[in-house]
Design goal:
Strand order of the largest sheet: 1-2
Radius of gyration: 21 Å
Oligomer: single chain
Shape: elongated
Number of helices: 5
Helix content: 25-40%
Distance between the termini: 81 Å
Number of strands: 2
Order of helices and strands: EEHHHHH
Length: 166
């Protein structure tokens, strides 16, 4: 049976909220959420309810982020350098600072702090950056990610250590 496709694509706006591997196959399930009021039209746009005896391929496109609100259209200010050494900071603080850096956002294939934080949490397998702990698998995953990023030639936006005696 051949599925008849609509003359023009029917877009669906949804929130990409999670993903999970299917252990018995080499695939990932992507989970999108839509408002309950839109469920009927979304299901219709996708060709009806999924059936186990049919594959139904759809296209997924990321929407452009919403324009900045209230405070003008100016880009975010560059993160000022911190005093002290990067390695003196706790891992959650380092993670938060990196997510603010546009270069780190690009490294994670995102274009804003919130998306970078989401990707970082997924990569570290934590619900919050505050749960990244040294000596724990979450901390090990974070340090691996940080090492990969700094391996691209990037440096934390911090002053060089002061080698002069006070």
């Amino acid at each position: 049976m051949t599925e008849t496709l609509p003359a023009s694509p029917l877009p669906v706006q949804a929130d990409f909220c999670d993903l999970r591997p299917v252990k018995s196959r080499k695939v990932m399930q992507l989970i999108f959420e839509v408002p309950i009021e839109a469920a009927d039209s979304v299901i219709a746009s996708l060709g009806g309810f999924p059936r186990p005896d049919q594959s139904r391929w759809v296209g997924i496109v990321r929407l452009a982020p919403a324009a900045p609100k209230a405070h003008g259209d100016q880009p975010p200010a560059e993160t000022p350098p911190l005093k002290g050494r990067w390695t003196d900071l706790k891992l959650p603080a380092r993670a938060a600072l990196l997510c603010k850096a546009p270069e780190f956002q690009k490294f994670l294939a995102t274009d804003n702090e919130a998306d970078a934080a989401y990707v970082l949490r997924q990569r570290c397998r934590v619900q919050s950056r505050a749960h990244i702990e040294a000596g724990h698998p979450s901390g090990d995953r974070y340090l691996k990610l940080e090492t990969e990023y700094f391996g691209t030639g990037q440096k934390p936006n911090m002053p060089e250590p002061n080698t002069e005696e006070p």
